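For the sake of transparency, this paper describes our internal protein records without simplification. An entry from our holdings is shown next, in its original layout:
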Amino acid sequence: HGASSERNTEVPGEVGFRMLTLQLSGSNVFGWLAPESGVHRLIRTSPFDRRGRRHTSFAVALVLEGESNHDTQEHGASKVPLPRHELKIETMRASGAGGQSVNMSETAVRLTHLPTGIAVKCQRAASQIENTKTAMKWLFAKVRAQAEIKRRTERAQLHASSLLEASAAAERRVRSYTLHPKEIVKDHRCG
């Protein structure tokens, strides 16, 4: 669909990644990926298990919508402001391999939205200004996502409690991919 991706954050795990943050841009990318938010389960026979047992792995996908103006944003009828006085901005030295000046200058940035307690950290660029801009994008997306969840929850409370429980359970699990004994993909959102 003509989307481009940029890898922002990597936290390596034992195999693969413990956390991976991607920034995707393109026409209607959020619309295509928003339904994939939730838990994905993979059931397979591990090539490292001599006994041939089935192993289950889980991945959580969180799809956030980004914007270009970060001080005050509008999304439909809901407006989510991020005034500077509600932000705690911390700078620190970046960690990891990076050359001669990696531990000499404070280029890493942690932003905390004080009313919600949401915090983001960015250390991908060598410039504190670039890291601050990127962290503002991430923070705004997370604050807006939380505001949207709060709005949905308030609206859902108007419905019967059984309907609320069913929708909450459906939002948690997205899809299961079973590769053994037969190849099956089950989408939990449609039953």
Q: What stands out?
A: The two ends are 28 Å apart (CA to CA). Confidence is low (pLDDT under 50) at residues 68-78, 159-170. Residues 128-156 form the longest helix (29 residues). The chain is about 25% helix and 35% strand.
